[in-house]
Design goal:
Strand content: 5-15%
Order of helices and strands: HEHEHEHEHEHEHHH
Helix content: 40-55%
Shape: globular
Number of strands: 6
Radius of gyration: 17 Å
Amino acid sequence: HHFRPPKDKQQAKEAIGYSPREKIICYLGRISTEKNLDTLSKAYVKLKDKITNARLLIIGGGSERKVAELEQINGVKVTGFVSDVVPYLQAADVFVMPSLTETTSLATLEAMACGLPVIVTKVGFMKEYIKKDYNGMFFPRNNVTNLSLKIMHLLMDKRKRQELGSNARETVIQDFAWEKTYKKIRKILLKASGI
């Protein structure tokens, strides 16, 4: 219930210091090698000439050297650790998880719950719950050009963003609601204990 779409996308952008006209590409998580932010930042630089109002928002912190590198790129903002990521996710237009390795990716599920279309690598459990062109998109690991094209496509197609985002939220509600997860865990524990 906490992770939900904004009532007003323009107000959500203004609330975190962006103009309503800016298109926000978002990443949430640690800034570390396995998260592969090099590919995301290069894809962003590649599309920036074509979509001049695009911005890259990195929610999280990590390597000081890497943060400094990212902040040198025009249009990139790194928030560092924030206690409530929801306002940032609600302001975003597209979410990208460029990881080389993942387990479930809670950050991706949180973005989906906020109604964001997601673009991810086909790693970990993400390849099970993301359905191509239904609730998200895949891009090949380290493929800057492919990622850049997919981000551009979504930024330029509001209807597709809304369709994928709506389906993404529905996926989380149907398959990952806490009540459902609690019942599954309880059932497993009861079975394991022989009750």
